Every structure is written in C-alpha cells, then in structure tokens.
Amino acid sequence: MDNREILTRFKNGSLDRTSAVALLTGAPPAPATPRQPAVDQAAVKSDAPAACDTPLPADVPPKDTTCAPHAVVHDRAGTIGAREAIAVTGIGGRYPQAPDLETFWQNMLDGLDTAAVPTGRNAPGAQGRGHFLEHVDEFDATFFRLTDTEAALIDPQERLFLHTAWHTLESAGCTGARLDALTSQDGRPRSLGVYAAIGSNDYLLLAAGQWSPGHDPLPADGHWSLPDRLSALLDLSGPSQCIDTGESSFLVALHQALGALRAGECAAALVAGVDLRLHPSRQVPGGGEGVGAVLLKPLAAALEDGDTVHAVIRSSAVAHLGHSTHDDHDSGVPDDAVGPSAFEGGALRETARTARDSVGAAGAATAAAALTRAVLQLRHATAVAQKDEDGRWERPRRADGAQLPRRALVMVRGSGGTEARAMVEEYLPDPASPPRRAAPAASEADDGAPQLVLLSAPTPDHLVATARRFANWLTARGRPAGPGPGPGPGP
Predict the structure, then answer these.
(1) Which domains does the chain have, with CATH numbers?
(2) Are 305 and 69 in contact (CB under 8 A)?
(3) Pairing assessment for the beta strands 348-351 and 240-243 based on DSSP bridges
(4) Measuring CA to CA, which residue among 20, 16, 21 is closest to residue 35?
(5) Which residues, including other chains, have CB under 8 Å from residue 296's CB and lie 6 or more apart?
(6) Is 483 exposed, middle or buried (0-12, 13-18, 19+ CB in 10 A)?
(7) Which of 340, 390, 398, 443 suits 113 as a labelling partner, its CA being 20 to 30 A distant?
C-alpha cells in the first residue's frame, strides 16, 4: 500500500502506530505491547488545527490527538448526582501582558502591574492607564472557514472567543473523534454545551458611528452569535447560551453549565467569558480586558477517558442581593450554598478584587480570571498570597490527621447585584478506587526508532504553522533544566 493509504488506515484506527511506522520507514514491525492497545493509537481527525496567531494555553503542550487515550464512544449521558464533582479538563485564556496562561501565572507570582496606556486602538479620547490586551484586531478567518467580509462584521470579542474556545478544546484533546464521542441521551454525537459570558457592545457602537445608509451592514446587535457560531462551526448538539450579569457573568454561566451536565443535557460543556474595551469612552483608568475558558466534564467520565484533570468543581451557587449592598467578603449568598465542607480546613478566596490585581476591572472576563487564578494556584500547589514566604501551599488536615484537598472559593458579584460562587479543589485520587487508565507510555530506553505523529490542517500554511509549533514545543521540552550537561525532561 502507498503512504496515503497507510496514513488513512492509521487515522481510522485499522492500523496501529507500530505497524504504520514500520510500513512508512521500511523497518521490521516491533511486537505490540499491552501498553499500546490499538484503540489508543487511532488518529483523531481534528476539525482544524490551532489558529496560527495565538499560542497554546500555558502549561499544556499541544496534545497529540492522534494518540489521545481512550478515543472510544461512551454512551454515558444521563442525570448524575447533584453533588457529583465536575472536572476541569481544559483551560485557556489571554489576559493583559499575558498571551498564554504560563505568562499569566508568572505575572501572578511576580505581582506584575499590567496597567498601561492603550496603543493601536485609535483612541484619542482614552482617559488613562488600563489593563488591555494586544493584537485584538487579528483573526484567522480562513481557519474558521469565514471570508474576510464575514470576519469584518464579527465583534472582535467573538473572534477572541472563537480562538480561545478552540485552544481550550485542543488543549484537552477534545477534537475530532473524541468530540464525536461526547454522546447525548438520544445518541447524538458532539454533545457539547457552549456557555458564553459577555456584556459590552463597543464594536457595534464604533461601527454605528461610521455607518451610513447604502453602505455595509452593521455587526449583529446581540451576543447570541458567540455561542451559536461556535456550535454551528463545530456541529455541536448541546445547549448554546449567552449570559450577561456583569462581572459575575462567567460564574453564572459556569453554574448553568454544571446544571446542564448534572441534568444530562450535554456530555461536556465549554464555558468562556470575554470583554474588550474598544470604545475610547471605556478605556478608563483601572479598566481591564481578557478572555478565559474552561472545558467541563463529569469527573467519573473524565477519569474513564484518561483526561487531564486540572481541578474539580464541587459546587456552585447564584443569588441576587436584592436592595442590600455588600462587598465581596460580606455576601448575600449563604456560605453553605456551595456545600457544607466548603470552609473545612480553610479555602483560598478569589474574588473580583484579587482578579483586578491581574486584569483590572474586566467586566464579563473578571470571574473568568478569578477562576483561572484559582485553578492555577491549585495546579501549582502555590498560593500567591504566600509568595513572601516559601510559597508552598500545604494541604489542610482534618482533626484525625487525614489530608484534605486544597480548596479555593471563587466568588464575584456583578454590578447589578447578581453574585455567583464556585467551590474548586485539587483532584486527589480516591485510594479505594481502581487506578485510572493511563495513556500509552514510551519505553524507558529510547531506541531512537521513528515515532509517528499525524498532523492535519485546513490549508498548507496552517499545517506548516502547526508543525512549527509542535517542533518548538519538543525543542523547549528538551532544553537543559538547569546547571549541568543533561537535558531537561522530554515530552
């Protein structure tokens, strides 16, 4: 068979990795081992590769979805317990002076003040220093199968949402066949809910100021297109909703997504929040911007599929404060609304105030930044508030000495009075549970044999960009980790 047929059979799973490499290189095939089952070698066709102009989410390598673990269909849709944990299996975002989450985390550790005078916005009326994103005008229209004319009518917030949503799915390996494997109760594939948090409409305001009858149409006057466009592009079958409750929008969207997962309305859910200050009147001192997203999945399903679990969401709550006024630490939402164990052993708190240190007053992106800060601190076992000490965040213990997971309470109140909370904790495997299945691992001794990695892309340019990003990641992972001649940890 020729190379095309070999790759096609490798992609559809009828040819395992070892055999494909042997056929492509002419080397004798090595015997398969139990650690390399054929199903795990099935290439997962990506709908499209990562967009060329945006880096991957931090700390998460470009996942080789051609060998994503357990790329099989699971018909597990249905209601789950109201208190069952939900896993964060993907996370992504862009924030001021942080094009990826690795930089965002470093900025948190350094206590970097990200405020600056906005540039490149054609904003002579801008009123002062704020926390702004760079390159918000850039968009890979070809990647999303859009024309330049169509792209020009799309709010830059929606463009940023599309980029970040795709990177979050890609970082979780949730593309192609693994996306198909998210099955609804009635058997529909791609049962992924999309929940978007957004509030401002600056782009329409700017366009209206330049519009005259007979010229190009105006951008959409509603935010419904954010989740709907992604659902249409990826042929998703889950709920597709847009939420605006001010600064708490992202956590309210998260709360709705958790409810949909527990009700069996979708097998996984993407939650994202975005806010850009494009109009000069909103580029005020202390103003902020950002975009963040998480991919959610029931913990049991995530473990069965071999997903990375960045953190676990135990519970959430939403309430309006009525005519009372409260600050972030005197809330109208009862503490027990997020579970009786929310404060057992103490929990790190992330609020609009703590997020503002990183992103300013970022509107609908505020709670996304707060949750991202919490997840990163849990993942690194480091509380940034303790950075003046050793920085290590020790696990709390019960009275009997048993360790408890590190926890973070994320709570944000919108300017209109809607407050939302989420209790997030690190994932600690249950000692009584059977060990989770792991992805196939390379042999301890590298024999130098070729390793096959299948990349797909919508255009040759995208393929080159994807290959370059993958090569750069491999090179970075192999660099020396410190003093001494030896290389750092490999992929």
Answers:
(1) 68-425 (3.40.47.10)
(2) yes
(3) unpaired
(4) 16
(5) 86, 87, 88, 89, 254, 257, 258, 261, 268, 269, 270, 271, 313
(6) exposed
(7) 390
CA angle 225, 231, 233 (to 5 degrees): 95
Q: Taking the model in full, what pTM does it have?
A: 0.78
Per-residue model confidence (pLDDT) at position 68: 32
CA-derived radius of gyration, the chain:
23
pLDDT in the model for residue 42:
30
* % of the chain beyond a pLDDT of 70: 70
pLDDT of res. 17: 73
C-alpha distance across the termini of the chain, in Å: 31
Could you tell me the sign of the dihedral formed by the alpha carbons of 41, 47, 52, 58, in that order? negative
Q: What angle do CA 370, 334, 338 make, to 5 degrees?
A: 55
Give the Cα separation of 285 and 97 in Å (integer): 16
Write the pLDDT tens digit of every residue in 236-258. Answer: 999 999 999 999 999 999 999 99
Burial of 44 (0-12, 13-18, 19+ CB in 10 A): buried
Tokens describing residue 229: 């466009």
Q: Is the pLDDT of residue 383 over 80?
A: yes
- Residue 202 zone, left/alpha/beta (φ > 0; ψ -120 to 50; rest): alpha
Q: For 416-455, how does the pLDDT look when each residue is reduced to its tens digit (9 = 90+)?
A: 899 999 999 999 987 766 655 554 444 445 667 777 888 8
| 3-state secondary structure at position 463 | helix
| Amino acid residing at 133 | L
CA–CA separation, 48 vs 463, rounded Å? Answer: 10
Helix axis angle, 352-359 relative to 366-380, nearest 10°? 90
**Helix runs in 26-100, H state only:** none
Instruction: Give the Cα separation of 112 and 390 in Å (integer).
Output: 19
**Tens digit of each residue's pLDDT (9 = 90 or more) over 70-97:** 322 334 545 666 668 999 999 999 999 9
Q: What is the tens place of the pLDDT at every residue in 173-201?
A: 998 889 999 999 889 999 999 999 998 88
Handedness of CA 269, 63, 43, 465 (dihedral sign): positive
Q: How many residues does the chain have?
A: 491
Q: Say which residue, 448 or 138, is predicted with more confidence.
A: 138
Q: Which of 296, 197, 199 is nearest to 253 (CA)?
A: 197
